[in-house]
Design a protein that fits this description.
homotetramer; 450 residues; alpha/beta; Rossmann fold; 2 domains; 14 helices; 21% strand
Chain lengths: 450, 450, 450, 450
């Protein structure tokens, strides 16, 4: 059976991920993501109203024109998890393909919300839920299957899809951290990866998340971030003023820890900001978390402001607002608080906890700097970098190669500079660039079996 | 009663700490340290055989000539803990003063070993042990007392000495982290600090450890480093090759965690290198730790080599050597292993865990880089930065000011650039440079009460 | 005669410079500057309409309330040169003092324009022009004189004022580079500084520009930047597309070089942007430069757009627009060009020359990054860092101390971290902090002679 | 005619350059270099006595075993210039090939000295001199020629060899800066490159020096470094103590400028250190420079020490020693001076001019830091970074592509991270990775025409 892989997006950048695998006549698409920074660099762009081609020209969504060179029928569109750089282009591209979106329940829910917000295209692909550990048949050949292997990332319900073919398995490895003690959900299913490496024809091809490929050592478990966060919040137990925290809205494990430690130090947690409400609300509705019954979540400006007023009335010392704005985004909640645009009044000594790392890019760094400066002008004090990455460092990559023993490797989720360390790493394990290690660019086709 | 403070060493650098406080006719000296980097920059220097004046000229030990301007009798020399930059000059300077060295038991033991290694001067000062929480009378006035308040640092048995005078307390705040869950020993005694701030005339003067004064937020607890280290070592449980760890020899809490986690993953820990043996042996002898009965500690070259041979014979997969060399020091054990100068043979895939941070200075960075490169040439893989600082960041400083409410403040343990953040911090709290906030330099006298 | 110095602004930051010197009954104020970054951090602030007290609270202009502690009459307000951080608060503060503004002709012209733009206060102080090398009498005592010594900086007509008193000279050393081959104007008058160091009672006090006090070596001459710029522009001689340059509008020497080299490579230079027109127009009107007769300068939006249209019509290859926007300021000309908001169309291969350095602060770095990214998206290619600083590095400071041999020194124009290197430097020359080396903060009074 | 290219060394690092081009039956080898840092990382290694295979294992010299896969006869070994990373392996590898070394006169002279120092192998290949601009026939086919095109680099007599074949020209582009005003020798011969791009079949393949491929803009001309150096040295004209300068020994243009400016400020220049004597002596002997008749050059320890004694006797203020040690190499002359191991005594205020940049690698940075610290301890003051790179930045690459219009491109002289910017640059110009843009690794064969 011919096996061909199209590296469509995310092979020259982090963002707008998209890869297609053809096994005989059947094609499966993994991820359809959005590169948000290519949108935000422009003023006043509303992606909801924009046409795909304009977004492709902007470098915001994958240029999927190479799909016409791929002979076969798309049978499924499979986002691996709910981050925008993996699902954000579904509303712009999926309607071109006569195929369902297949994903885990939490991811499907986020895809649904994404599609509902779309104003240009009517996206009507079926949305099919499949749990980690499950398998479905692909196409009519009867010998191609799609399996979801549970992995750990900075969002819940993340999986690595595996396409089982007669030639061996194609493992799509985006995005993951190797975490044996995640705070929510099961540990990464390394046992299954090892089995896949040994069974049948083994692993034909492994497409890897190279985000941290130039970083040595091991990405710490979420439990380490939790231990750090606990130390920070417990140290504030005696403080009788305002404490505010911010983190990635989609990072349900982290939000859960914040909620829990807030309670431990005698404060009522409350989640504020549109995306805070969206992700945490969805996670709660789907029973991924069991938040305290009285946990408030507010997204709309009016209800947020009403909550802030209540907090000011009842005493800041009784609350711990968890808000959006960890990157200093100009319109996020924390930045608005810093500018004095909300009813929440910061006082000298108030504490602001950034349970996040600044994404190391000058735009973010500039915005975070401004947000921190404005907070500081009001007397607030900053605790930052209480975080661990969602992506494996080099030692995780070594472990994956050891488990899967793939015949071919395709590095993804980085530009050439960013994945360079992964090439050396693979060479250390006996692979050779141009032979079985395929460094690709957006829009390329790689024939693995012909 | 006249109160005068001589800022003798460590006010223009980190290293060679020394401060003298005169209360009426009685003088107490806090710390007598060595700035090792000023020694190592020269080739072939043996401090054991050197005269004080040469070491002063080199900037290696405090220039204590200002002591002659201080009218009063030295009643005690009080090192706060056992690090070289606090005790390393005792063997060179203490014999000039007719006064005992007063310190906690572990510190006294290290001072004793220091003095025994001295070859130039016969240092015969009495060595007096006093536990944290205890108090002794100073001089004959009857109203000056020395108290030891328990603090947490990257070495055990660290204290902050407090000189109680009729004018108020002088609190000498070097060195500490604000740790409520240290792995060994008691948490920092904030309750006592708060009492001292309120009782009698309160705190007349606070001399502060400004090492991290330009860093925002809170230094994490040792328990966070422990959680990180556990995650790293547990992730290696299935590895059947060599694992080697390195950390600060004097960091007994970290060594204890390494020993414990080694056992957890089925390996026999063994401590190797002269200073590993010295500090851990001393801690065990004084009952600060309860190491497993079969824990080997070896310092002499021959016994180390014999141990390495045994490890190679019995299988590297059964051991976890904890060795010196975390900064890539050219003659330390790990660097010798990297150069293939020991019987321990590194293989591809072996793991080297640096539970330490590179001290950010180009000499160290260059040496660490070389050590890592040599390790890498043998196939070893590096895990680094598994560490937390022993010094408070800005939030700890705010808490200390809140607890002590000192009338005067003297920043120490940094140069002007390094302490600059502390000046701003104190100004935020209402202090004013030149009035009650005294930025000093080596060799100055500050009259607090006249 | 009593000599007292008030360090009012710019002693904890770079920006909002202001210092007052009292000699007996006479007071002279040096500089009244604006810290623009404290304004820009806020949205929608229009300083023209704001009250002084609000601007003081924002940290934007000097807090001159300490002036009431200074017993004497203000006889002159003396800005050293025309940069905003030295003249920008005159329109907000000068009317409180019954004294003329005394400055060099170019500076006076800029002060006049500043005052004309003021909408809140009517500033009616006399404006008196005095050339470098000249001297005027201050007050009625008959023995206090004000002299202007010619210095070199990144703006023309800069001087260091010297207040001659019976106790010795007070030299106000802000801002300068030690340049013996400036492109425009005379070299720094070191001969006169050396004379002042030797004559009469010598130099009583020297207030120094510490902007670059932590940088070793020597700041290169403007002639080095010119040589670099020439190499860059000449290398583009054969390019037949668009070339755009940007630099500091007030940097007349640099603009002159750009104009000259544009001609050399066969292009018509044209200056675009409000502040380009303002500074270059002023310099030309006052005969500081002799621009080609046909050099266009346009500031108003309409005339700029008209010029761009003409350029597009006649061929980009015939022009070299010199525009504002070297820091990526969102509303500057170059950023508007990058966003496609002007009639000038960038094509692939077009060249953009930044004859400026990014001011190393995350806000600027973020904005410059965005501007460069937008330019890059249109195919433009960037040449940057073609620049030299306007401030002396350490070797310049050593030379000034050698020339002046001052009895007292006050470091200025930096925060504590930024001036820390200058303290060490002065100590190397025998000064001592707290004795004759006065590290001050905003709002302090230093009694030099009492 | 078959054209095949073997990328042997320098495709995963900067150092140990080696590339072979086969045109039909004839093979030409370009460069045989040494990666010195792979040697220096080990203690006590003497390359003169080492076998090739050990040096290959160390990663110090190219692994030329791939040459056996290249069917054809080596007709010439062509080093492009005299730097060690281009000629340093000739003494270890050239004897395996029955072919002459062909190079420019200065390079041949350095190769000869290199071979004379070899103690392990008898290297007896013919050494043939060919000037820039000249051409020789290669092999017996009668239609393969080797041409030398003059280029500008940080060493004199550098060329880019061009192999003219019936299929088009193969241009070997290592190492160069695009300099139209070098201080010594002719400008880069862009006219000839443009001709080669247009004549016959044009350029079949271009192998490019990617050292600075991630740096934007244009590398300044040597004339800019000269202008900077002049400003620095002229500023010292009145200093009556010691001035010492250091630079790359092989950088004859820079040494010439130092010699000239020393004279200008009334000092006798003198070149000290083995490699200073070697390179400058060779350049003078071959008439590349016309040093003053009385210029001393001394390499042997005794004559250096004698010179230093003479300088001390006759007065430091009359001399300007130009010495080795710009990277702080532990055994170089300047480091020995810093350690007080030479008769030259440094005093407070003496000036040390580094006309070089620290090679940005932690080992060098550590050593330079130590050298500067030791110099500082003796009172010396540092001027550094008076330098320009010898390699083109991105704009030079664009110009070369524009001139040559090559059909195929092979990036060289960097690792994958280092050359990543060049891939984007080529893609901007229409090339495509895997089609006509060949990113290679050490030991690969690339079939260009088959």
């Amino acid at each position: 059976m011919e096996i061909e892989i199209a590296t469509i997006g995310g092979y020259e950048e982090v963002g707008r991920q998209m890869t297609a695998v053809r096994a005989g006549d059947d094609v499966v698409i993994f991820d359809m993501g959005l590169n948000l920074s290519q949108v935000l660099i422009h003023d006043n762009v509303e992606t909801e109203r924009m046409h795909s081609l304009d977004l492709i020209d902007m470098g915001a969504i994958p240029d999927d024109r190479v799909m016409s060179d791929l002979e076969g029928d798309v049978q499924a569109i499979v986002p691996t998890h709910g981050h925008l750089d993996h699902i954000g282009a579904i509303s712009k591209l999926a309607h071109r393909y006569n195929a369902p979106v297949v994903a885990t329940p939490f991811t499907i829910e986020l895809v649904k919300q994404q599609i509902e917000g779309e104003q240009k295209f009517g996206v009507e692909n079926d949305l099919i839920k499949m749990d980690p550990g499950e398998t479905m048949s692909i196409g009519d050949s009867g010998n191609v299957d799609l399996e979801f292997v549970n992995v750990t990332h900075s969002i819940i319900d993340a999986i690595n899809p595996v396409l089982h073919t007669p030639e061996g398995a194609v493992v799509y490895g985006l995005d993951k951290r190797m975490d044996h003690s995640p705070v929510i959900g099961d540990p990464i299913d390394m046992e299954r990866f090892r089995e896949i490496g040994r069974e049948g024809n083994g692993v034909l091809c492994y497409i890897e998340d190279c985000t941290n490929a130039n970083k040595k050592g091991r990405t710490p478990s979420e439990s380490v971030a939790r231990s750090h966060l606990k130390d920070v919040l417990y140290s504030m137990e005696d403080y009788d003023g305002g404490i505010v925290a911010t983190t990635f809205s989609s990072h349900i494990a982290r939000v859960t820890s914040l909620v829990e430690f807030a309670k431990d130090i005698g404060r009522q947690p409350v989640l504020l900001g549109r995306s805070m409400e969206k992700y945490s609300g969805t996670a709660e509705r789907l029973d991924f978390v069991d938040f305290p019954g009285d946990l408030g979540m507010f997204g709309h400006r009016k209800s947020v402001d009403r909550t802030f007023k209540r907090i000011m009335n009842e005493g800041k010392e009784n609350f711990l607002p968890v808000v959006t704005g960890h990157q200093g985004e100009p319109r996020a909640m924390l930045t608005r608080m810093a500018r004095g645009e909300t009813p929440y009044e910061l006082d000298g000594g108030d504490k602001v906890v950034f349970s996040a790392r600044v994404i190391p890019e000058p735009t973010n760094e500039g915005q975070r700097y401004q947000a921190e400066k404005l907070l500081g002008m009001q007397g607030a004090r900053i605790y930052d970098d209480i975080h661990v990455s969602g992506h494996m460092n080099q030692e995780g990559h070594y472990e994956m190669l050891d488990a899967l023993q793939p015949q071919h490797i395709i590095p993804a989720h980085q530009d050439l500079k960013g994945l360079s360390g992964y090439v050396t790493l693979c060479e250390n394990e006996g692979y050779q660039m141009g032979r079985d290690l395929h460094v690709s660019r957006n829009g390329n086709l790689i024939q693995i079996v012909d």
